[in-house]
Amino acid sequence: MELKKPELDLVKTRKKAQEALEFCRSKKMNTDLCILIDMSLHSGVNRFVIWDFKEEKISGQHLVGHGCGNNAWSSDESKEDPTFSNEDGSHLSSLGKYKLSGRGHSDWGINVKYLMHGLEDTNSNAMKRFIVFHSWNLMSDKEVFPKGSPEGWGCPTISNNAMRKIDPLIEKSEKPILMWIYNE
Q: What is the percentage of the chain residues whose pLDDT exceeds 90?
């Protein structure tokens, strides 16, 4: 029996984007764009969305990896149903809203990373856990379903080419950009 490839729910994404815009306005964050990551989707499909607030539409979609937990690094064991934690050493991703800032050097991918400041109880340890947004050579530019994306130690990771597109958007922003990782 062939697996049916899950698709991004545009109605749900629009609703999240509207909530994100209200949040960004209230926190004086960037109101041109945000990043939405729907972890309820299989890791082999494009569940990382750049949302354009002005145009009210998706301006980019990419694969994104999540944390492996106790599984072997870069396996795809939790591709359909990842678990999440805010605990240091869990090697799991954390849900919630993040403020992206602090562009710096990464040892991974194209050597660019952004600090992720957790804004909720579910991700308040992101800085302590060294959870950052970066690219990774193992991430594909194309969907890999029914396989899953490589799993790391909790950082949201995208392909090098995806980061080359997104990095200038974040870098030129005068206000912090919201990244919202959710699983509902």
A: 90
What's the mean pLDDT in 136-164? Answer: 96
Confirm if 7 and 43 have CB atoms less than 8 A apart: no
- Whole-angstrom Cα distance, residue 28 to residue 165? 24
Give bridge partners of residue 135 from the DSSP assignment: 158
How many residues are given for the chain? 184
Give the architecture-level CATH label for domain 10-182.
Beta Barrel (2.40)
User: So where are the chain's domains?
Assistant: 10-182
pTM over 0.85: yes
Kindly state the tokens that stand for 173: 């922003």
Q: Do you find a cis peptide bond into 146, omega within 30 degrees of 0?
A: yes
Task: Decide the pairing of beta strands 33-38 and 48-52.
Answer: antiparallel
The amino acid present at 68, given as its one-letter code, is C
pLDDT class of 3 with cuts at 50, 70, 90: confident
C-alpha–C-alpha distance, residues 183 and 81, integer Å: 10
Beta strand spans in the chain (E): 33-38, 48-52, 57-62, 96-105, 112-118, 132-135, 157-158, 177-182
